[in-house]
Amino acid sequence: MATSAIEWTEASWNPTTGCDRTSPGCDHCYALTLAKRLKAMGQSKYQNDGDESTSGPGFGLTLHDDALDIPRNWPSPKKVFVNSMSDLFHPSVPFTFIERVFETMIQTPRHEYQILTKRSKRLSELAPDLPWPANVWMGVSVEDQRYAFRADHLRSVPASVRFISAEPLLGKLKLDLDRIDWLIVGGESGAGARPLDGEWVRSLRDDCVDRNVAFFFKQWGGHHPKANGRTLDDHIWSQYPPTRELLRT
Ligand code: SF4
To answer: In the beta sheet, which residues pair with residue 137?
Structure first.
């Protein structure tokens, strides 16, 4: 199984790989950098090069039919991040392929699936024609105020859990949290990481507390990814939204 180092999930599943940068949050895309390494190591999923102005070596958008069934082979329930190395709603992913991804998710209700996209407009256009089983969480990335419109697109999606990932958070952000269940916030990490202002984080946390929205602070970020930890005002914020399991207890 592909376990994940991402704090808020347990496994990753990549029925597609590759992507193209679309907004400033993509500037230091970890997947783009990793794909280049995986290509050099000869990994078969990462041999298709993308446009060099928006993508890179090994990061061309590629469909993997042979990956569609992978979660069926995981017997124990997992939180699964769908497409940690891509964007399911990228314009080059055909609707029929997205339907097949949903088919697998419907047929493996033991898992909770977390899909995160920056292509919120396409998501909102396709959402009425997709089935939305209770085990699918749908999220959009919002890195600063100019991209808050992605949350408006998300609000129209009938997913059981709607979440926003404000990572890397690049500026002060005021979000409308209506019909949003979960907010993840994190600073950028790695070489050239852009700074995270604690007041941006506190203001989002306070809004979540006021609105009773689950809040997850992933990391401060910085040059060394984990060096600055994830403590905010002496507290680790690791809340999750109410899910089917939690609601049952
Ligand atoms: S949308 Fe996500 S996967 Fe695609 S380039 Fe941007 S950060 Fe990377």
So the answer is: 114, 161
